[in-house]
Amino acid sequence: MNREKEIELKNTESTATSFDALDRALLMLLQEEIPLIPHPYRMLAEQFQLDEEAVIDRLYTLKERNVLRRVGAILRPQKAGYLANALTAWNADPKENETREQALERVGKALAAQPCVSHCYARKTPPGWDWPVFAMVHAATPDELESCIKQLMQAVCSTDVRILKTVREWKKTSMKYF
Q1: Which CATH architecture does the domain made up of 84-165 adopt?
Q2: CB under 8 Å to 33, separation ≥6 — which residues?
């Protein structure tokens, strides 16, 4: 059985030339499906005539250099039983003696700490759109989704949220960088 693996390359000031050909080849392989086996890195190592420890060391080095953030399984929410999903957008008005950046940080961290949130981020928004903090929320049922969103409102002490429920998914893949 194969599981899709995800690689996230962190935005840094470094360029694609900041790693060697072996690193690049390893990153390319990590963007493909990796078999769910006891020693997946050993399998990768064999392709480069390396041992498993050398591959793991290279990955740790890439992580330390902020090229690689993580390697992890991609969960397909609907296939895992999470049939009710929504993108939520939150206002982050500063409280007294709080900067806009501090407000974004406060709201983002409060949302990100909740188990029903898979990812949470701030975005620059166009004029007239006052909800710069976005959180993807997953639940098994519509009732659970509503309950989760109410918990999120309590966590951020705000009901100023826009809820965009998923009605259909056309594509869900990881970005391939190479």
Answers
A1: 2-Layer Sandwich (3.30)
A2: 2, 3, 4, 5
